[in-house]
Every structure is written in C-alpha cells, then in structure tokens.
Amino acid sequence: METGQRTILLVEDDAAHAEAIRRAFASCADGFGITQVASLREYREQAALQPPAIAIMDLNLPDGRAVEVMTSPPENGAFPILLMTSFGNERVAVEAIKSGAIDYIVKSPEAFAGMPRTVERALREWRLLADRTRAERDIRESEARFHTLSNQFNALLDTLPDRIILYDTDLRVIWANRAATSELLSEGGNSGESHCYTLWHNQKIPCDACPVKKSLLSGESAIEVVTAPDGRVWELRSIPVKESGGIVSVIEVGRDITGQRKLEEQLRQAQKMDAIGRLAGGVAHDFNNMLNAIMGYAELALKRVASDPKTTSYLQGVLDAGRRSADLTRQLLAFSRKQVVEPRVLDINQTIDDQMKLFGKLIGEEIQINFVPGGDVGQIMIDPSQIDQILANLMVNARDAIDGAGDITITTANVELNEAYCRSHPGAVPGEYVRLAVSDTGCGMDAATMERIFEPFFTTKEKGRGTGLGLATIFGIVKQNNGEIHASSAQGSGTTFVIHLPRLDKGQETARPDISGALPRGSETILLVEDDEQNLEITRLLLEECGYTVIATTSPLTACALYEQRAGGIALLLSDVVMPQLNGRQLNERIGSAPGFKVLFMSGYTDDIISHRGILSEGTNFIHKPFTIMKLAEKVREVLDAD
After folding, report:
1. Does residue 160 surpass a pLDDT of 60?
2. Do 271 and 252 belong to one domain?
3. Do the beta carbons of residue 127 and residue 75 sit within 8 Å?
4. Does residue 518 fall inside a structural domain?
C-alpha cells in the first residue's frame, strides 16, 4: 500500500454524485485528495497542470464523452482512468474498456460507497500493467541491442580471413562465417549436409585428425595442422563451449598457413645455403693455399727437368690436377660469395650474341638454340668471367636435360620487380633489373629435386658427368651481384631458370686491356708478406724466377720494420689479405704510400677485408690463389707499370 496523499481527479457534472464519492473517501484512511472538475476542457487543463494518480470520469459530460480523452491501451497513458455511467450495458462496457478505461462501474449508492476499494484495485492493476509494459519494453530494447550486437559481431567475423565454425556435440554445423561458407562453395561441398566431415571433406565418418572431436572427448582446446588434398596447409584450433559443466558446442578456427609454411621453408633453405656457403668458403681458402704451393713447386720443377720427358709428364699431370682443383675451389667460392671479382659494365645482349657460336659447339647439332633479345635492354655491372660461368652452366644443364632433339631458348628483357614479387621471392629487392631466362624442353624436375638444385655437390646426373657445382656457382654469382634467381619446372615439361641482375643506365662503359705474351720479368724489389710459410717460400721462388729481388716475411709487424729500413728501395708490397696481427689492408695503411710505391693483395678469398661481398673497388689490385708463375708475373708487371 502506498503512503502519503494521492490525488484523484474527479470529472463529474452532477454535484450529488460528486458529493457521494467525496464522503466515501472522507471515511477512508488511505490518504486520497480529490480535485473536482465538471467538463472535458477543465479535465485537460488540470491534467496538464498536475497529472493525478487516477482519474474518475463520468462517461457523458456537457462538452463531450470521456472516451475522447482516453488512451488505448490504458498502460500507454499517463495515469489510469476509471469510467462511470448511469446507464450501463454490455455495449457501453465494451466501448469503455476498448477506449482505454482501467475499469468500468455503474453509478449507484453501493458503487459510490465502495469507490475506495475500486480505486485501490484499479491502481494495483495499473501498476501491474505498467510493470508489464516496462518489462516488455526492456525486453524489446534488449532484443534490439542483442540483434544489433549480433549483426555487428557477425559482420566482424565475416571480415576475418580465418574460417570460423560453430559445431554442436554431434559435429553438425550450427553457424559459419563468410570465409567458411565461401570455402565450402569454392570446394563444391554438399551444402545440404550439416556434418563437418561431409561438408568439408566429403567423408561419411569423422576425420582422424579432428580437433573438434578431440575437444568433445577431452573438454579442452585442441590444435591440429592438416594438409588438404589441394596441397594447402591448415592450422585448425578448437575451443569447447561449456554450460553447467558440460560441453554444448565447439568453436573451430581454421587458418590457411600455406604461405607461412612456404616462407618458413624458404627461410630454412636460405639459412642452410648460408651455412653451407660459410663452410665452403673456409674450406676453399685453406685448400687454395695448399694448391698454390703444389702448383708453384710443380712449375719450378718443370723448368729444371725439361730434358726428362717422363718426369715432365708426371709434373704436368700434377699441374693439370692442381688447375682442376683450383676450378672446383673457384666454384665453391662463387657459391659462398667469397670469390674476388672485378665488375665491368656489360651489354647482356651483346655478350650472349658473342657466345652463340661457342654455345653451338658446346650443345651439339641435335638441339636448337634460340636467342630472343629484348629491345633496348639495359646494361649490367658484373665480372665478364661470371656471366660466362652463368651462361655456360645453364646451357650445359639444359643440354643434359634433353634426351635427343630439343630446344633451348634464351630471352632477355628489362623488368621492374615490385613489392608483391619480392614478398613471394625471398632475397629479391624491388627495383629495375635485367632479366635473363634460359628455358629447355627437357625432362624437367620434381618438387623434391627443385628444393635442392642450388646445393653444392647435389646432382641428378650420372656418376662422372657432373660435380653438382654448376647451379651452386650460378646461385653464388647472382647473390654476390645483388640479383635474384629462381627456377620453375615440372617432370616432362622442361625447366626455366630466371635470373634478375640490377640494371644500369646506358653509357657507363669501362674497359681494361688484356695482358698477354711471354713471361714478363723485372728487377724491382718486392716486399712479400705471407703468414703461411710454405706459400711464402713458393711465392718468393716464383718472383725470383722472374728476376725480382724479394724481401720476405711471415709477420706483418716485421714487414713494417723492413719497409722503414728500405722504404726508398721497395717498389711493391705483395701481401696476403687474411693474416694475424694485421690484415693486408691494415698493413698497407700502416706502411703508408711513397711516390711510385704499389700494393698487390693476394688471397684464397677476401673475407671482405679489401672488398665488399668479394667485389673489388676500383683501384684495388688483387691476385687470386692459387696462381701460376705466368699469372703472377703478368699481374705484378701490370701493377708496377700502371700510372
């Protein structure tokens, strides 16, 4: 029961009836206050001024009928209205209730006397109606909010690339986002089915590697990585949804990780190639030092036993084996990017055109060689010997892949590598390049072979037909020159190797004269610094054979002291690059440079001490170990005679 005075707005033009109602409430202890008006106009004014707790209205008033101001349904009004009439019947009652009256009474002394109870009942009904109205409104608003949030959440899930699916405990699909339904449509799945194993996999029983099934059995989240029949790799995660301690559904999130796995594999491959390269470079460095001594002593011995044909042939065999070994180490160094090179500006089309006759002799008559040069192809900066190595190795590989007659096609073009290309080809950098492509109509390669083609000593050729260093050499050369290489192939469909080398602007021409002829000699004094005693000795002997005076030492610090003692008389510093105490560059910097003083570096590989990634800067003189007496004599003379 409410406390405090509540206002009743009494709308009655009959004074006697109004008085009877007042008396009934006067004897009531519930605290009602009555305001009386006699017309609809006065009712409207009073209700607008101060809305009552309830209105008691006569049906027929001087200026109209009470139903004109009622609100239907009654709970939509500001307060309840109790309707009275002197002549009640069923039709009037129905009209009153439909118009919005909370209740209907027929005027009588008994009805007036019981008016307080009638009002209390009407107020209770009004409160119930109002509560129900508020509850229904709250429910509608809550449903609207839920509907909005649900739509927003579904829209959010539909924007995700992951496949998100809700399953019941029988592995039936309850809901799926757009990515999942699009996947189903693209795979041509049975949209009339509801079980996951039928929808996604066209099976009649659950899959073995099913994280949803595992979550249903264990009650815990699960994860599986599966490979689809189309080759894509999926990471499937399942999360059980529980209510009252039991699993009611399972959420599965499927992510296509094919690209990620491919990048991971490419990274592992790059790391493996880098590790092999470091190993190959270290082995080649030490091996070159030994070869230098072997070949040097063999050459000196040949000069002493020229009259003994048998010994001469033996020593020539040693030299030939040394040269072949040097070729192997040169290829290893090219792969490891430790080969020392002297880049020149080259026209790739002209270079290929110059070698077409050589290719014909190398490949044979059964195979047709086609050269399709691109128009206005840019120049490249590369050591000429390296481009020769690339072309020769690719042509030989193509020849060996063709059984009988076939075609080899060489193409060149200007290309621009964009970000998208570089993302799919690790190691490539966006920019302007010259593309060199060599295609054959040979037997092709399977995927397992393709993964290993650039590894040193990996070969599919018969024993004795290849060392497995050809493609490894190309790989190292391309990487050393900031390029990119890849291959595409399929068994029975031939192979295409594509190389991209940075493109230069036209007009950058360089040239150096070739040095040839008889063994060059000299009489200058040379300071020789080599930490390997065996190499020091053979190099000294070779230089002395050419007529030079040699001051030799294994210590860079001793070399500094020797230079200070005879600075004016030393014409050339011939120094190894990788040495303890001081490396070749540091030794040169400490000695300084007097007018006419020259420097020539030598090494099995540079270790980037006098070069960047094995690429010599202009003005750096270098000779690669192992060297013959002719090569050493020519290089020393070239350096001493240079301006």
Report:
1. yes
2. no
3. no
4. no
Looking up residue 13, the CATH number of its domain turns out to be 3.40.50.2300
Query: Per the structure block, which two tokens stand in for 213?
Result: 């099934």
Per-residue pLDDT tens for 333-373? 655 555 555 677 888 888 888 888 777 777 877 888 888 88
Whether residue 104 is found in the same domain as residue 168: no
DSSP string, 397-462: HHHHH--SSEEEEEEEEEEEE-HHHHHHSTT--SEEEEEEEEEE-S----HHHHTTTTSTT---SP
Other residues' Cβ atoms within 10 Å of the Cβ of residue 180: 23
Helix (H, G, I), strand (E, B) or coil at 36: strand
Give me 97's structure tokens.
Answer: 């209730």
Cα-flanking dihedrals φ and ψ of residue 550, to 5°? -120, 130
- What is the structure's pLDDT at 10? 93
Range of the domain at 449: 344-502
Same domain, yes or no, for 387 and 484?
A: yes
The CA distance from 380 to 374, in Å, is: 14
Count Cβ neighbours within 10 Å for each residue of 506-541 and write b for 16 or more, e otherwise.
Answer: eeeeeeeeeeeeeebebebebbbbbbbeebbbbbbb
- Tell me: pLDDT of 513 over 50: no
Q: Of 134, 169, 202, which closes a domain?
A: 134
Backbone angles phi, psi at 285, to 5 degrees: -60, -50
Residue 520 falls inside a structural domain = no
Per-residue pLDDT tens digits for 289-306: 777 778 888 888 887 787
Quick: pLDDT tens for 113-132: 888 898 989 889 888 888 88
Q: 57, 79 in Cβ contact below 8 A?
A: no
Question: Is 507 inside any structural domain?
Answer: no
Q: Would 141 be classed as within a structural domain?
A: no
Task: For residue 213, give the H/E element and its range.
Answer: helix 211-218
Residue for token pair 């621009």: 416
CA dihedral 109, 111, 114, 115 (to 10 degrees): -110
The pTM score is: 0.42
pLDDT of residue 55: 92
DSSP assignment of 341-377: B--EEEEHHHHHHHHHHHHHHHH-SSEEEEEEPPTTP
CA distance 57 to 82: 6
CB-side neighbour CA atoms (13 Å) of 143: 6
In this structure, the answer to whether residues 491 and 348 fall within a common structural domain is yes
Cβ–Cβ under 8 Å, residues 417 and 385 = no
Please give the Cα distance from 444 to 465 (Å, whole number).
18
488 and 420 in one domain?
A: yes
- Cα–Cα distance for residue pair 480/427, rounded to 1 Å: 12
Last residue of a domain, one of 199, 228, 256: 256
Please tell me the total count of domains within the chain: 5
